[in-house]
């Protein structure tokens, strides 16, 4: 899990998030403090930020204002999301993985309403890096599929600059997962669906 101290969240964002002010709606992140730190960075950069909590695990890691508990059903989610986008004048939605049930619906609703979607890739393939694309990742990525494109492009790029290593800790991730799932388990009554 990156410590998000260098660069600060919001500094290495896609160009569409660099033009202030934006109204950003965060959906699910991974278990842990990443989205809270991302929210802090976005707020420091002058953006308005809201976060949808789908369970108490999400809520436990969101320590900022703007948290929204979604307690409705999957069937009600498209209309609820449309309402949130309109209510908060959302310009950008950020989510972790674009193939979760609620996130697939969110991509469709955002496309319908002209709201940008920024997707963090599920599964860290590259150590020390977190990837994010506008629109989707992996099978939903807009990146070219032609391997020759990458060979040509890579040949024109300078060497990768030195970067800080991100320490990995199974113990920390396990404790974050335990805290997330315990919060979810002990307050299921609040999120009945």
CATH architecture: 3-Layer(aba) Sandwich
- What string, H for helix and E for strand, traces the elements in order? EHEHEHEHEEHH
What structural category characterises the helix and strand content?
Answer: alpha/beta
Provide the low-confidence segments as ranges.
1-13
Look at the structure and give the mean pLDDT.
87
**Global geometry:** globular
Portion of residues in beta strands equals 5-15%
Number of structural units classed as domains: 1
Write out the strand line-up for the largest beta sheet, numbering strands in chain order. Answer: 3-2-1-4-5-6
Q: How is the CATH topology named?
A: Rossmann fold
Radius of gyration: 17 Å
Q: What is the CATH top level name?
A: Alpha Beta
Helix content: 25-40%
**Secondary structure tally: strands:** 6
How do the strands and helices of this protein lay out in sequence?
Blueprint lengths: L22 E4 L7 H11 L3 E6 L2 H5 L6 E3 L7 H11 L4 E5 L4 H13 L2 E5 L11 E3 L12 H10 L13 H17 L7
Parallel strand pairs: 1-2, 1-4, 2-3, 4-5
Antiparallel strand pairs: 5-6
Describe the protein.
The protein is of the alpha/beta class. It has one domain: Rossmann fold (3-Layer(aba) Sandwich), CATH 3.40.50.20. Helix content is 35%, strand content 13%. It has six helices and six strands. It has helices at 34-44, 56-60, 77-87, 101-113, 147-156, 170-186, and strands at 23-26, 48-53, 67-69, 92-96, 116-120, 132-134. Strands 3-2-1-4-5-6 form a six-stranded mixed sheet, sandwiched between helices. α3 packs across α4 (101-113). The chain is globular and about 55 Å long. The two termini are 29 Å apart.
